[in-house]
Amino acid sequence: MPDKIKFTVDGKECQAEAGMTIYEAAKANGIYIPVLCHYEGLKPVGSCRICSVRVNGRWMAACTQPVTPGMVIENASPDVEEYRKAIIEMLFVEGNHFCPACEKSGNCELQALAYRYQILVPQFPYLFPKKDIEAFPKFLLEHNRCVQCQRCIRAIQAPDGKKVFAMKHRSGRVRINVDRKLAARLSDEEAQKAMDICPVGAILRKEVGFRIPIGRRKYDRRPIGSEIEEKK
Amino acid sequence: MSRKLTIEPVTRVEGHGKVTIRLDDHGKVAQARFHVVEFRGFERFVQGRPYWEIPVLVQRLCGICPVSHHLAGAKAMDIIVGVPPEKLTPTADKLRRLMHYGQMLQSHALHFFHLASPDLLFGFDADPAVRNIIGVARTHKEIAVKGVLMRKFGQEIIKVTAGKKIHGTGAIPGGVNKSLSPEERDFFLKSPAPFNIDTMIDWAQEAIQLFKKLHAENRAVLDSFAHFPSNHLSLVRKDGALDFYHGVLRAVDAEGRKILNDVDYQDYLDYIGEEVRNYSYMKFPYLKKLGKEKGWYRVGPIARLNTCDFIPSPRAQKEFEEYKAYTGGKPNNMTLHSHWARLIEALHAAEVIKELLNDKDITGDNLVKKGRKKHEGVGLIEAPRGTLFHHYRINDDDQVTMANLIVSTTNNNQAYNEAVRLVAEEYISGKPEITEGMLNRVEVAIRAYDPCLSCATHALGQMPLEVELYDSSGQLVDRKRK
Question: Is the ipTM of this complex over 0.90?
Fold first, then answer.
């Protein structure tokens, strides 16, 4: 059995298997590093940067960067947390996120992160972009809430491996594009998977909204990250 | 010199409205109007939203009786998913009723104890610093505590059925998303006094006794204040019983003659029209059969007890019989008797809550049904303040394309104007000096209908009462603040 890699997170001595990312290694040691674009089982892309940590003085994305021996990782230092909070706030002001009537409320990772970071009013001005809703046979794509995490792109594929979701445009105009023909062939289960994998309320399965009562939603009882931190 | 009096905002009501009274050169009332100066625009911005979001989205119209909008929206969506209200599972139907009757109890308690009782207990001319719920708590502690706890009880009923006391998610198209656990049910049935349903029923009955005592002491004013004939509209159960959740439309005139009867509310547009006037954001609905001039009507407690034939719970029915006997079985057109009617309804709500809590269906697990989808649906409910209309159309992509809401307060629009005019003519016309008490009488008349102006248009506002005096050229000559 190969030797374990030794590193520190906020001064705490940690060990992990070789080949793990910083995010996975921290998790194995009961330390939560917030993620949004990353999803267990999907290839990490490091696009949202919420998992940013400072390693030996340099910023890195914890979901993509492999852990190496001797790394000195800063995860909970005030400026790292402020940096993440700013990213979350930017995601809010760049979209139109109205939690009160959103079906994903209580199950939404963006909302849960906002609660964790105690965001009351964003420090940036709201942009109120003009975005729309696109309808497909099994689901609706609510562009107002999309944070371009690309989870749907990576997770949902046709039987021949073709991607159902893709990105189009660049920079501020970037948005998720859907292959209508492939989307029309999605089963109910695949549409449900797309909705479940979306961290926000951008992918909505048709006709089955609000089935989970308040009190039984994922983050009603425990804040995001607590399932990792409770293993300490 | 002619003058213009402005009461803005009207206090101890939900939302933001104002009253203007124009006096002629002799100080006589030339014109009295109730304005709703808020604008919200829900009908427009629900367009494009998926239909299953509607019950959760539209309830944000209001924080006082959001359950009404939640359920009216859900009832419209029931039609759209092909499950008319009669076809819901017994568990879904009874849980929605429980939620709604819990709301009736809390909203009626709030209105009577918190908003209206200061006028009735202290008098219309009492010092405004005392004439409020804090004043009631200081001098009539027992009454205030009962009011607060009755409201809390209703709110707790809403919480177990909708998930939250305000803005929950219990009703979904075709059913509900949760039922009650035996523990949740027993909390209301078996908690030690006072927080159990038997105590609430007793307290609701005591509140009626309180009103009757105040009425006996001040009969002339309570009977004559803003007493005017009108038509009355509400839902009634098919057999004519009082029903807050579902039924058919019935309208009667001031003498009790039926104008509408057994009307399926899916066809409401054939019977109800809406007029727009240039001084208010609130529309003026009317019965098409009688036209714009004569077709206006009242809704709410007073209207419901005028349209229904009986109340299907024993203690409320007994009170109803006494109430009806007071007007010889004819419709009651006395504005301040709406408090009496409201308290009888609160008693009925408490009795129904007990009946539902003892029904095994509320702990059932058959929650949702689905039928053949339609593109249009209407949902009506008797909200605490009166009949509430929700009407939606959707497209093939399940997105809302049209919404029309006629809220309870809108239905009463002409009644407010009528009440304001009568009170202004009786108490302000020709008087050499305008006192705060006179202006409060105008508010008392509006308050009796428990208007919810935020529902009617926009958001809550909290500003001091301000009265402005203008000369005939429109120059401001005096301003008083409360």
Answer: yes
